[in-house]
Amino acid sequence: MNRNTIYDLFLKPLFFRLSPENAHNFSHGLLELGDKIPFFFPTLQALTTFTSSRLESIVCGINFKNPLGMAAGFDKTGELYPYLSRLGFGHVEIGTVTGEAQEGNPKPRLFRYPNSHALINRMGFNNPGSEQMAINLQSQKKSVVRGINAGKTKLVNIEDSAKDYAKSFRLLQKYSDYGVINISSPNTPGLRSLQTRETYRKLINDIKSELGEDFSVPIFVKFAPDLSEKELLENLDETLELKLSGVILTNTTLDKTSLGIDKPEEGGLSGRPLKEKANHFTKIAFQHLKGKIPIIGVGGIESGQDALERIQSGANLVQIYTGYIYKGPFLPFDICKTIDDYLLKNKKSSISEIVGERA
Ligand SMILES: Cc1cc2nc3c(=O)[nH]c(=O)nc-3n(C[C@H](O)[C@H](O)[C@H](O)COP(=O)(O)O)c2cc1C
Q1: Which of 181, 182, 194, 252 has most ligand 1 atoms within 8 Å of CB, for mutation?
Q2: Which of 139, 263, 284, 311 lies 20 to 30 A from 214 at CA?
Q3: Predicted pLDDT of residue 195
Q4: Pocket of ligand 1, candidates 251, 275, 320: which has the most ligand atoms within 8 Å of its Cβ, to mutate?
């Protein structure tokens, strides 16, 4: 019996009997419990982690042990980082955190579509707020790269967004290797309007003047897959002019036609139906940016081949969320091994040699 069968036969049916959010909380509990059992975590770590010097890379001056990260939204409080950082990921992106604590939308707000390997969520940035997150992170040991993804508090007016983002970055920069400005979640009213070119420029300039000189980590910006290609390219030009460090493509989509069902839930769609669009955005972004700034590719990655394809489309790093729910905890091992096998077979010594090779 291989590792994936153990997940498919035993753990997944158990998790999928629970509501998605309860399953998430239950797995958090299991990880906490497991950490108290001698040898449990070292064994799990050995089974989920694939190590190879070929997978290492330096992006924005940061050393990544491998190109795979856990995408934002899985660890909204920072409390899962100590576990996720031992489960095969080269980086973990925490958040979205907002300036102030908020409960998010009423439950249920997360839905599975197993036939499509998809999720729809309308969580609405439920998170403990940046002050509490700083407390959660302050005593943790940082073993893999940690990104902090920041968004806007729902009750803060859109015109005052910059102050809210800056508050989170100011409080959390000492615990992070990179920051993310999230302007692409569909569940905070008005947030995506920050992606229009002029508003985007103003937001970033305002955040920069709020932060002044005292901000030192690289900042990425995360865009939606629902932008037109023209809007995406305009925003990429703006991102270069604003001297941000990189882009994350993409967040969830509001286009649910590919689910092929009558009344999908409200919220953002992630997983397999997003793969093609997110891959296409990575490709056109890479062609446009020509390697001037890095791309983190996310959306619908659920196998080693998907991750490899995303890197060949132009992503320097990749992330997963929904694929992890459907494929389970050994997916990071499988993804890293597939990429390493490809590098070995093609006599490449590092990831950077294949970034964008099929763009
Ligand atoms: C339940 C859930 C919550 C999410 N929350 C956030 C979030 O808080 N901030 C963010 O930038 N992205 C969030 N995302 C989007 C993911 O980071 C990712 O961009 C998207 O799901 C596409 O990747 P996937 O197809 O591998 O899931 C969330 C996704 C899901 C499924």
Answers
A1: 252
A2: 139
A3: 78
A4: 251
Distance from residue 185's CA to the centre of ligand 1 (Å): 8
Residue with tokens 């459907």: 326
Helix or strand or coil: residue 102?
strand
Q: If residue 188 lies in a helix (H) or strand (E), which one and from where to where?
A: none
- Rounded average pLDDT over 178-187: 93
Alpha-carbon span 250 to 280, nearest angstrom: 10
pLDDT digits (tens, 9 = 90+) for 119-160: 999 999 999 999 999 999 999 999 999 999 999 999 999 999
Q: What is the pLDDT of residues 103-124, one digit of tens each?
A: 999 999 999 999 999 999 999 9
Cα–Cα distance, 186 to 54 (Å, whole number) = 37
- The catalytically annotated residue of 85, 176, 185, 245 is 185
pLDDT for 6 beyond 90: no
Structure tokens at 17: 């009997």
State the pTM of this model: 0.98
In 3D, which of 94, 114, 62 has the Cα closest to residue 294?
Answer: 62
Tell me if residue 185 is catalytic. yes
**Ordered structural domains, the chain, with CATH:** 3-353 (3.20.20.70)
The Cα–Cα gap between 331 and 302 comes to 8
- Give the other-Cβ count within 10 Å of 14's Cβ: 12
CA of 73 to the centre of ligand 1 (A): 5
What is the crossing angle of helices 40-48 and 331-345, to 10°? 40
Residue 134: the pLDDT is 98
CA 213–ligand 1 middle distance (angstroms): 31
**Residue 59: φ, ψ to 5°:** -125, 125
Strands 118-121 and 110-113: antiparallel
Which two structure tokens, joined as six digits, stand for 178?
């990179």
Residue type (1 letter), 166? A
